[in-house]
Fold Transcriptional regulator.
Amino acid sequence: MKTRERIIHISLELFNRFGEPNVTTLQIADELDISPGNLYYHYKNKTEILHELFARFEQQMLELLDVPNVEIGIEDQWLFLHLIFERIAEYRFLYKDLVNILQRYERIRPRFKKILHKKTEASLTICSSLRDQDILIGSDEELEALCNNIVLTITYWPSFDLIRHPADAQDIDLSHGVYQVMSLVAPYLRDGERQALMAMSREYLS
Amino acid sequence: MKTRERIIHISLELFNRFGEPNVTTLQIADELDISPGNLYYHYKNKTEILHELFARFEQQMLELLDVPNVEIGIEDQWLFLHLIFERIAEYRFLYKDLVNILQRYERIRPRFKKILHKKTEASLTICSSLRDQDILIGSDEELEALCNNIVLTITYWPSFDLIRHPADAQDIDLSHGVYQVMSLVAPYLRDGERQALMAMSREYLS
DNA sequence: GTCTATATCGGGATAGAC
DNA sequence: GTCTATCCCGATATAGAC
């Protein structure tokens, strides 16, 4: 692997582990056994490294959020959520210091907002589809509040969980996050669907 | 006001505005028109200032969370939430850089966890009470997921809202947060109660 | 209690040789 | 592409006079 690429990989790893604000360029260089000068040859500063990482995150996330407007079932939603949580876990450093990062790197701020917006839209698309299929019941007003809550939970569940149960390593508990989001949707489902979902959840979590 | 107290007040204000990691002791001193030396006479370091602020936050929050185990109605819950959001808004710097702060100031970590735990318990107490009064319907499992979601939303709503709608000044929108939490509870309410709640919400938000 | 001056340190970043 | 050496700066914290 080329140095430029190794820098990106190690940076992501260190950012995720220690938090982006707590990782220095020297630390990154040390970890790679290269000199700081070398690092600065490849990236002109720390900001550029972060931008590169964000661009990759953004690209993957937007791709994922480009939801085809077809009929979607509960199982599809489940899978969809799982994929989203995977991407977030991969770039969790962004989420752990979200406000701070968006404050210090102003250029990514609008782009992150756009992702949030797309997430809300995707949620709305899915929920509307479920409603059209008579799987889910709810007023427009309720659906909007629901989708806001879904996006909030997706965004912050990993951090929230981390505070309560400090993870030693990479053992992020994706399943629990998916469950938590599905529990937001559950009460709006028809009785039959709800039971099925709850059963799935229990199995999934254990 | 004595200098020691003025330091605390200004620090809180600056932390809230710029984020705790971005505020220096020099900035605090400047804002008060005192010398850095003087500041360090009153507090031996920045950590001590933060601890003092956290202690005040903690004291107020725990006081609030000491929920009397009596019959609680929807309106009481509304008020209760509003008081909680007020405290959080007052010390929002903690929430904006939560993971980071808990990482760098290890001593407050267990204390914050305890507050989260108490919040979950308080939510559970309230929801159980509502269920006993037949206002709310739900299995134990559902109530637990619900209360987790409530606490998550309480914890992160302000930050989430901030990202989407950058606030120029102190105009924190408490109402919307309360609404968002209530929308989590709504689907579990009996039809009559639910309609009443939604009506209340609409009025409250406008 | 308050000030000025200063020490110390660490992180970001550059210059120039190889 | 990579290294060593170094600069610069800002932040924390202390010393000692008033």
